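Slide 14.
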Amino acid sequence: MQPEKRAEIILWSIIVAYAGVIYATLPVVSAVRKALTERFGYGIFDGVYWVFGALGAACAARLLVRLRGAVRIRALVSLAVLAGIFCSGNSTTSTTNPAKPESDRSQRSEVSAESFDVDRCR
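Slide 15: predicted structure.
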């Protein structure tokens, strides 16, 4: 088997395994989130994101060392895009804390069924 083909199979296997883990843990996510928030506070999620991000970066760096040529360049570009998405979207300090009471959040406008004009949407 060619080294490029083997590396591609390994990378796709990791992606499929990771997606499988995500889908397998969906039923318990809310219970785990509630337990972590009660025990450590809401900021624990930032630490969890960065730890797993660092582990993923270490694994990706190890695999990238083994890749050569155009495959390596494509992999680096893909990793840079994913790292940017990870860093921009996973910081819980910039989002609204769902553990705060509703009175602490900014007021949202409520639309009642009586005040909503269906004909205006057509």
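Speaker note: Residues 3-92 form one domain.
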